[in-house]
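Fig. S4 source data, part A: sequence.
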Amino acid sequence: MMKSMQSSPADRAQVSRKSPVLALVLAFFIPGAGQIYMEKVARGLIVLVITTLTIMLLFGLISWFYGMIDALILSNRWNRELERNPYSRPWNQ
């Protein structure tokens, strides 16, 4: 006679409930941590990686924009200095 593949309730440990508030707080402070707490490790790691890449891209865009504005400001300052003294390089003062 074949034994049943399912174990009896006495053989299994009771699964504990998960706190929705804790899942939310973890996800607030560390992207993907709420999913990992909920035992969805792959999903949590995906959220962490996507969030990290998005933040890096955002800072990269901000830095690029800053670089463009800074170059514009520097070129205007250079030209103003040359108008005052056309025989001196502005940054050597």
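Fig. S4 source data, part B ends here. The chain is about 65% helix and 0% strand.
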